[in-house]
Design brief:
The complex is a heterotrimer of chains A (273), B (368) and C (313). Chain A has eleven helices and no strands. Chain A has 273 residues and is mostly helical. Chain A folds into two domains: 39 residues, no CATH class; 205 residues, MetI-like fold. In chain C, 71% of the residues lie in helices and 4% in strands. In chain C, a hairpin with a 6-residue loop joins strand 3 and strand 4.
Chain lengths: 273, 368, 313
């Protein structure tokens, strides 16, 4: 961080550029206004989206009572939980394998593969999965959630990998050397030293993967079998018909849940050192 | 294997660590020969120091003994047993790291207990040894603190206690004092020496600080560019350095031309001296070393057994005054005079003629 | 140490053993992640390459018969009357919409994103985290939900039309939904944080003494911005532009919700081949085209940034 310059007369700071602050504040307003309106209307008592008819929770009750919504919500959570957990375990192992080392044969390839899902547009992955899983479904006759879990796990891996890797790279390797020096086997070194120290990174990775899985529409839309709607694909389906304030209520719940997770994630990763 | 094997037998000459023709080559963008055919034997119960400038290979040698890296060539033996293939956790050797490497998620006591727990010692014994160690390094009060909450000097003592707790056969210390300020460093030097004699453990100590090495060691190995140049007790290293590098690295030096014949050296500038001749040096032209404090200067003409010169500069530095001279041969020479109280004999003045007297036994032939 | 103690291991053997063990361990650790990705991401992409060279089946899927039509159909089609090859105008206009809307969106996010990033980076250190957090939260919240929020805004009975009608500026609702405008507007809103974050990182690293030096050497505010600040934060601007451009090119949800059935983008055209259109080889070929376009943008980005780094910036 550069030293802060000596206080200068207001208009002359090299840090202010004309119009920038106004544009920035407008941007912040523009980022939050649509979300705020969406949330506000979810509490609207009336059926019309346009007219405010007073505060009410009726759309939340209606959404909660809707069996399709219940199913989709449970399925979303189950999917996100399974995929994020498996992805985080795999990403933790992969992060241990690919950090804090000089070059080893295959490192570039492993690295490229782990990040591959980030490099390809979601719609492309979705279509490719549709092609392959459709064939597998026909061939095995098996149509459980396994396909969705596999697909979600795959694109969650690079997201879980990011914070774990970042955490590992800031860790002092001499701590593990010290543990080994003090007679800890590789496994004990991992359990007693590496794991506790990288734990915040793992939790951050898990949360990120969870959020990413919860948010997904495109891949889920193409991979799901009949009756496997998640909350986002359910909402996407609803948008084809008339939009009801019920969708607003569901959106608000998703929004709040996401914001809470992101806040936690932010706290976890910024409180370092 | 039992890391707590006690080594209190009286065979002080027994070899604890044997480094046998060890080379270590790092292959990166360019090949670096960190250790070049190094052989040395470190005795039991000895305070052995690896001394050299940064990049000389001393830390690499330590890491090889600890088992963090395998040697490119050669072998390392501990108490006569080849340990080259053993991973670090199976070597009865503990390390005090340069940055201490204390576990930040554990308390002081938990750090010290770690090695004992890994060895599977019973709880009561662990407890007892930890208390003992805390007492040994005078940290009883802070046993429940996190390691981030204590000072650098205290961290240093915890690191020592942690490494000593399993009672290793050999303790490796990687520049452990370099992060401390001068005053604390002096205290810790004495503390370390005390710990070594109280525990009877072999210490291998790495430093680039010559004074630290001279103060603490039983023997010193001076290293440069991946090789050990000389091994010996501090006095030998200081007074009878075998090579110019060693002489230069430790203390102030005058290098003078001389002719060696039959155990006597005749300086080009005049005077013949009985000298110690290192192995492998033949009669003929040689370089010799004279420490500045082994020479005295007085104003006036040179007499018998004295060397004539001109005073070029006189530098007062508190406890001593250093006189820079130019000899008749054109060679530069320094003499370091202890300062007498004011009113005592004054050093000669700049520009005047002076005579240098070299103490008997102060001339050392160098191998170069 | 006698000669008899000479090295019991051939030179380099211990190192080779250690290196081999290390490599084996690292591969084993990577294995679960690799298996998952190969099975459910990278592998299917390869299968898709094969599918793009097959013949479309009658009811979706494919017949195992080699054909280049999947690829040729991406840009040309046979006239149904005289069987001559003509440009596939529908596809070309969709490509053009994708490209132009992506570029416009990138430009818009630049116009709003750079000042925002600048604003955050020049806040006092304590407040910076807060503003950064405000940008990050929408980024991680559900994309579909944010798109729905935009829909609420621009619908015929949406907030914008409501306000404009109340103010008497218009007397009939503006048709904004299901237009290119809606898609561009939505994508700008949705992808804006992707511009702000890398530009912020660049401004944060900017040494403001250099700007002072420029002023000291008689540069006006504008000249200092153009000649000193802009070149120094260029890597961040390039990174942000790529990060916005790539998802725009492959966008699916936003154009589907806001563009409706007529204003298709690349992603929606691909979907069509697996829905009513039912031409899987064409869909596979289109997907691969999109993937290659994105890869080219990524590679260009990597080369530019590595050159910048080589220049010492």
């Amino acid at each position: 961080m550069a030293d802060r310059p000596v206080k200068q007369p207001k208009g002359y700071s090299v840090r202010t550029l004309p119009g920038f602050a106004v544009l920035a504040l407008f941007t912040f307003f523009a980022l939050y206004a649509p979300i705020t309106i969406l949330v506000a209307y979810s509490f609207n008592a009336g059926t019309s989206l346009a007219i405010w008819e007073g505060f009410s929770l009726r759309w939340y009750y209606q959404a909660a009572a809707n069996e399709a919504v219940q199913d989709a919500a449970i399925r979303s959570l189950y999917l996100a939980f399974s995929a994020a957990t498996i992805a985080t375990i795999a990403a933790t192992m992969a992060a241990l394998a690919t950090t804090r080392t000089r070059h080893f044969p295959g490192k570039t390839m492993i690295y490229a593969l782990i990040n591959q899902p980030l490099m390809v547009p979601e719609i492309v992955t979705a279509v490719a999965l549709l092609i392959v899983f459709a064939a597998v479904k026909v061939w095995t006759g098996h149509t459980s959630m396994i396909y969705l879990i596999a697909a979600h796990t795959a694109f969650c891996v690079p997201f879980a990998y990011l914070p774990i890797r970042a955490r590992l790279e800031t860790m002092d390797t001499s701590l593990e050397a010290a543990a080994q020096d003090l007679y800890a086997s590789p496994w004990m070194t991992f359990r007693r030293v590496t794991l506790p120290l990288m734990w915040p990174g793992i939790v951050a990775g898990l949360m990120l993967a969870f959020v990413i899985s919860l948010d997904d529409v495109v891949i889920t839309e193409f991979v799901k079998s009949a009756g496997q709607d998640t909350l986002p694909t359910y909402m996407l389906g609803q948008l084809r018909r008339v939009v009801t304030p019920e969708v607003n209520a569901i959106s608000t719940v998703i929004l709040v849940a996401g914001a809470i997770l992101v806040t936690l994630f932010f706290r976890l990763t910024s409180r370092r050192g | 294997m039992d890391a707590t094997t006690n080594t209190q037998d009286s065979t002080t000459d027994a070899i604890a660590v044997e480094v046998d023709h060890v080379s270590k080559i790092f292959r990166g963008e360019q090949e670096v020969r960190a250790l070049d055919d190094v052989s040395v034997g470190i005795r039991k119960n000895e305070f052995f120091t690896l001394l050299g400038p940064s990049g000389c290979g001393k830390t690499t040698l330590l890491r090889l003994i600890a088992g963090f890296e395998p040697p490119t060539m050669g072998a390392i033996r501990l108490g006569g047993r080849d340990i080259s293939r053993l991973p670090p956790n199976q070597r009865p050797v503990n390390t005090v790291f340069q940055n201490y490497a204390l576990f930040p998620h554990m308390s002081v006591a938990q750090n010290i207990a770690f090695g004992l727990e890994m060895l599977g010692k019973p709880k009561a014994e662990v407890q007892k040894t930890v208390d003992e160690m805390l007492r040994l390094v005078r940290m009883e009060e802070l046993k429940n603190r996190r390691t981030g909450e204590i000072s650098g000097g205290q961290q240093q003592r915890v690191a020592l206690a942690r490494a000593l707790a399993p009672h290793p056969e050999v303790l490796l210390l990687d520049e452990p004092l370099s992060a401390l300020d001068l005053k604390l460093r002096k205290d810790m030097q004495i503390e370390l020496k005390r710990l070594q004699s109280e525990t009877g453990i072999t210490f291998i100590f790495v430093t680039h600080d010559q004074e630290e090495a001279l103060t603490m060691s039983d023997r010193i190995a001076v290293m440069s560019a991946g090789k050990i140049l000389q091994v010996g007790p501090p006095r030998d290293i200081y007074e009878r350095p075998a090579e110019r590098f060693v002489a230069n690295f430790i203390g102030e030096s005058n290098f003078l031309d001389a002719t060696l014949a039959g155990g006597k050296a005749t300086l080009a500038a005049g005077g013949t001296f009985d000298v110690h001749v290192p192995e492998g040096v033949r009669d003929g032209k040689v370089s010799v070393l004279v420490r500045p404090e082994h020479a005295t200067v007085h104003a006036g003409e040179a007499g018998e057994r004295e060397i004539a010169g001109t005073v070029e500069n006189v530098v007062y530095s508190g406890e001593a005054t250093v006189v820079h001279l130019r000899l008749a041969t054109g060679e530069a020479m320094k003499a370091r005079l202890s300062n007498a109280p004011q009113g005592g004999e004054a050093a000669p003045e700049t520009g005047s003629a002076a005579a240098v007297t070299i103490a008997p036994g102060a001339v050392t032939v160098l191998r170069d | 140490m006698s000669e008899m103690g000479a090295t019991p291991y051939p030179p380099g053997e211990l190192e080779r053993e250690a290196r081999a063990a290390d490599t084996r361990r690292r591969w084993l650790l990577s294995l679960p992640a690799l298996v998952i990705i190969i099975f459910a991401a990278a592998g299917p992409l390869l299968v898709m390459v094969v599918y793009s060279f097959l013949t479309p089946g009658d009811y979706g899927n494919v017949k195992w018969q080699f054909s280049l039509e999947g690829w040729t159909n991406t840009i040309v089609q046979r006239d149904i009357f005289d069987d001559t090859l003509i440009w596939a105008d529908a596809h070309l206009s969709i490509f053009w919409r994708s490209l132009s809307l992506s570029l416009i969106t990138t430009l818009l996010t630049l116009i709003f994103g750079v000042p925002t990033a600048w604003f955050i980076a020049t806040q006092p250190p304590g407040k910076r985290e807060f503003w950064l957090f405000l940008v990050t939260v929408p980024f991680w919240t559900n994309l579909l939900v944010r798109t729905i929020a935009i829909q609420e805004l621009i619908r015929s009975e949406g907030v914008i039309n409501l306000v404009l009608l109340k103010l008497g500026i218009i007397d009939a609702p503006l048709q904004m939904m299901f237009t290119d405008f809606a898609i561009g507007f939505g994508m700008t809103y949705v992808y804006l944080p992707l511009m702000v974050l890398p530009v912020y990182a660049a401004v944060d690293k900017l040494d403001f003494r250099l700007v002072e030096a420029a002023h000291d050497l008689y540069a006006s505010r504008w000249t200092a911005f153009r000649r000193v600040i802009l070149p120094l934060i260029k890597p961040g601007i390039i990174a942000g532009s790529i990060l916005v451009f790539i998802p725009c090119l492959g966008a699916y949800v936003t154009p589907r919700v806001l563009g409706g059935g007529k204003n298709l983008m690349f992603g929606n055209l691909i979907e069509l081949q697996f829905g009513q259109g039912r031409n899987w080889p064409l869909g596979a070929a289109l997907s691969l085209m999109l993937m290659v376009a994105v890869m080219v943008a990524l590679i260009w980005y990597v080369r530019v940034t590595s050159r910048e780094q080589a220049d010492g910036r």
